[in-house]
Each structure stands twice: as C-alpha cells, then as structure tokens.
C-alpha cells in the first residue's frame, strides 16, 4: 500500500508541471478581430530579454520578454515572415489606459504601486498586429532618468530591435529610428 502511494505521488509530480506549463506559456491576454484584422495583446511585461531571427527557423523573428513580477520569468512569442498579400506597416509606440488598475509589488524595494496606464509597442501588419505592453517603457518618458544606465540600455535595445526587425521584413528604417522621436514628443 505504501509503495502504491509513493508511486502515485511520483506520477502527480510528473503530471502537474505539464498542466502548469500550458497555462504559463500563453503570452497573449487577448486576441480580437477588428475590421478583418487579427490583433494580439500580450500580458504586461517588464522589458525585453532578447530577440532575433530564429537560427532553426529563419522565417521566424522571436521576441523574449521579462516578467513584471519576476524578471527571471521569461516568455517568448514569434513574428512570422510575410505570407501572401500581407505587408509589414512598421513599429508604433503608444500609451493605453488600462480597463482595471494593475497592482505591482516590488519585493526587493518593498514597495507597491498601481499601473493605470501602460506603454506599448505595436508591430503593425496589413492583416493584423501585436500589442506588446511593457511597464519599463515609462522610464524613457521621464527626463530625470535620462542619465541612468537602465534608460540608456533600454534605449539601445529598442534601437537594435527596430533595426533588426526592419531588416527582417526588408523595409527601410526611418533616419535615427522611431523611438527617439516618440520619446522627444512624449517626455516630461
């Protein structure tokens, strides 16, 4: 009887993580169809972990994001190469007011704050788009953070993302990139 109980406990350990992974891997919180365009909305993340063209499948551009509560929690999604009459329209930045306030706890600094609006990056296509919500982008909009290393690192990462993504889709990137113009327009 004891051996059977131990065997069942072992089976439970093997099965439970699989079910947990399926829920965790869904990076998108909402998928909607607007005017025959499929729009994907990611959950709120902190910032980028890494990105680039997949080495195993060169028709995919992967983007990895760090979790908002745990920066070691990495989630990833792919942007695929263009098919048929689809067109890459570009990268757009913006701020969206959230339906509900989002509570964030920073355990390292022992502070709690609420997000009522969140900055996003939109990867826009003719047949759809991906809204990627990143809480770290608000640092780019604060003038007092310009000299910080996080500000400079995040700005360089975004410039590199723009450069690589526009090269992946074979489109000309505007002079100086898109993010510096958006920051200059919105920075307080």
Automatic annotation (TrEMBL):
It comes from the Bacteria. Keywords: Plasmid. This is DUF226 domain-containing protein. It comes from Borrelia miyamotoi.
